[in-house]
Amino acid sequence: MTPHIVVLGSTNMDLVAYVERAPRRGETVTGRAFRTFPGGKGANQAVAAARAGATVSMIGAVGTDGFGGRLRAALEHSGVDTDLLRTVEGASGTAHIVVDDEGGNAIVVVPGANAALTGLTHGDEALITCADLLLLQLETPLDGVLAAARYARDHGVRTVLTPAPAQSLPPELLDAVDLLVANEHEAAALTGATDPRTAAHKLLDQVPDVVVTLGAEGCLYATRGAEPVTVPAPRVTAVDTTGAGDTFVGALAAALGEGRPLPSALAWASSAAALSVGRPGAAASMPYRTEIDAEAEARA
Ligand code: ATP
């Protein structure tokens, strides 16, 4: 059965400058190109999950500026249901991204309309109640994220949190989460431990399943009562790693929603993320289910 995934999170227009190397503080460098891509961690995860085969509904907010309509249309183009995407007066969220020649990136996010997502409407609650899985990130206000996590917990809906941008979190949020998927920086910010294994162990005190993503090295999966396991990433030439983490989480959610066990879902998500780093853009680079299946089969 096709899983229904609800994403509560950000929609941003990504404003991307491509440079040989990122500028240091006070320095100006000349970029080689500029492009705009619809993005935001919430919208990216929604698009990734939809392309990976799930039915996806997005709870979010866009502004009344020129970007708002483009952001909504981009979600709909990937098949994401936007009935509960609010339009609020003012600017949409924007992400200012510098991508260097090695495929690395540095990002400033300005929340704009995303700041309006401070709580749940009755419509949001009804949607979450019927979902197989709820995806959360931290680019929208913590109050709204916490309300959604608690509501999902109270109604037996599995919740996956990406704790990005990196920050420390109130224990009550982690207590309401079933699976945490953090990159190394986020895991360190949450625990104070720079070693991913140590960070994962600490996080298991509050969350039953933890995944720490390790870029080209793949990811580390930890569950209570067992030794952490490394899932390697396929070897690919990185063109643009922007959105790799969101592709990974969206595909992972689709696989988990179908009832796959976590280790097999992680391997499938790694194939999806590897495909995305070989192409430019964030949401634009996200693979479709048939491509992920072919990639996963080729690597098996
Ligand atoms: P980003 O912020 O760039 O979207 P992230 O920092 O959230 O990513 P990463 O740990 O860099 O997350 O990457 C997430 C997943 O994407 C990894 O676990 C891996 O499966 C895949 N990935 C990232 N970089 C590469 C790469 N160079 N080659 C293959 N897979 C990669």
UniProtKB/TrEMBL annotation:
E.C. number: 2.7.1.15
Pfam families in the record: PfkB
Pathway listed: Carbohydrate metabolism; D-ribose degradation; D-ribose 5-phosphate from beta-D-ribopyranose: step 2/2
Binding site for K(+): 240, 242, 276, 279, 281, 285
Cofactor: Mg(2+)
Superkingdom, natural source: Bacteria
Keyword Oxidoreductase tagged: no
Residues that, per the record, bind substrate: 12-14, 40-44, 139, 246
Catalysis: reaction(s): D-ribose + ATP = D-ribose 5-phosphate + ADP + H(+)
Keyword flag Transmembrane: no
SUPFAM superfamilies found in the cross-reference section: Ribokinase-like
Enzyme superclass (EC): transferase
Keyword terms of this UniProt record: ATP-binding, Carbohydrate metabolism, Cytoplasm, Kinase, Magnesium, Metal-binding, Nucleotide-binding, Potassium, Transferase
Subcellular location field: Cytoplasm
Role according to the record: Catalyzes the phosphorylation of ribose at O-5 in a reaction requiring ATP and magnesium. The resulting D-ribose-5-phosphate can then be used either for sythesis of nucleotides, histidine, and tryptophan, or as a component of the pentose phosphate pathway.
Assembly information from the UniProt record: Homodimer.
Similarity annotation: Belongs to the carbohydrate kinase PfkB family. Ribokinase subfamily.
Protein name stated in the entry: Ribokinase
Upper taxonomic lineage: Bacteria, Bacillati, Actinomycetota, Actinomycetes, Kitasatosporales
Gene designation: rbsK
